């Protein structure tokens, strides 16, 4: 039983250390960290695409038949190129869609607030303020998408750092 808890403690230590390292990278240099993750993700597909191509060519040299590894390898290499080319534009497109959605929701909230004025005990001001806040956040997301992604990555980095600190505190309390 002691060995089990000791291995869990080591895992928590490593987990907390990785959270801390990645959190610091995301917090202080989100642009470079994002680029590094995109390159690592693409490299993953390149490596496995090459492995599948080599394995398929070996099977072909032994049997004279191409197996499914050839098409998977080619697909993985194409996917790696697509990731390198389209990852940042796609990441920038997500806040635009979210921003437009928030603008529409904000307008809807304001219209809904004015339509509820006919009821005596309903105060429309909180819903109008909420609608205006949604519209403002939507405008920021729509017209500044890549900076928004970087700020979200910094926020993610801060969360990772807090999680690492909580892991270290939990590990210290387990001793």
Automatic annotation (TrEMBL):
Q: Which InterPro entries match?
A: Acid_resist_chaperone_HdeD, DUF308_memb
Task: Please name the Pfam families in this protein's record.
Answer: DUF308 (PF03729)
Judging by the UniProt lineage, the source's domain of life is Bacteria
The residues that cross the membrane are: 12-28, 34-54, 66-86, 92-111, 123-143, 149-169
Q: Which residues form a coiled coil?
A: none
Tell me if Membrane is a UniProt keyword of this record.
yes
Recorded GO CC terms: plasma membrane
Which keywords does UniProt give here?
A: Membrane, Transmembrane, Transmembrane helix
Name it. Acid-resistance membrane protein
